[in-house]
Design a protein that fits this description.
98 residues, 74% helix
Length: 98
Amino acid sequence: MEENQGTVIGKNVAEKTPAEAAKEIQDLLAQLQTNYPTTTEYEKQAFVNKFNDEVKTNSRVRDVILAGGIELIKMLCPPLGIRIEMGKRWLETAQKQK
């Protein structure tokens, strides 16, 4: 797993399909479930805390969750998809001009 040791600026992340993003999240959850079994409330809380730490420290996981979330919004509310894509292109253009 990739660990972010500082601030990452302008990192190009490959676009993932919702299926690819979901698979990567499922793989991470399966790995965490194996390492942190959840039979008691304490174990469930430890699992949630570990997943939260993983999201905070692993930029790849964060990017996958963000990509999956954006795709979900676009599927649930198609008119927002146009605005989301316009915003993404605007940000990409701004990044290139820096």
